[in-house]
Amino acid sequence: MVAALILAFSVMALLQFAISQWRLIWLTTASLPISENFRVTAGIDEGAIQPGDFGALLKLCDELSPNIRKTTPWLREMRCYYFLLTKGTTGLRLATTGTGGVGVRRKSDL
Questions:
Q1: Quick one: average pLDDT of 96-110?
Q2: What is the pTM of this model?
Q3: Sequential DSSP letters for the chain
């Protein structure tokens, strides 16, 4: 019983460390500046990168280097993360408004 408790505690500590490390890598990467040439080529405004710009960045990455998917595993993680965020945002919008964000009210709500 004690061994199982130690194993469970160790697994939880390892998971917490892995998640913290993953977040640190993403935050460090996100804080790096993007060059002006890349920004112009991707069609991104001078302000901060918005969530809608991620699709343009992935498209540009695919156009410039189609073989990059095979050599960089982090790009797959980014695509998965982006997909989960967009679907999660859409799901939350549907759950809160019931209309997909349109905000149509019923007569009984008024």
A1: 57
A2: 0.42
A3: -HHHHHHHHHHHHHHHHHHHHHHHHHHHHHTSPPPHHHHHHHT--SSPPPTTHHHHHHHHHHHH-TTHHHH-HHHHHHHHHHHHHHHHHHHHHHHHHSSSS-----TTT-
pLDDT in tens, 42-93: 777 776 677 677 777 777 777 777 776 667 666 777 777 778 877 888 887 8
Distance of alpha carbon 73 from alpha carbon 109, whole angstroms: 49
Please state, in angstroms and as integers, the Cα–Cα distance from residue 7 to each residue in 15, 19, 27, 52, following that order. 12, 18, 30, 42
Report the C-alpha gap between 1 and 95 in whole angstroms.
42
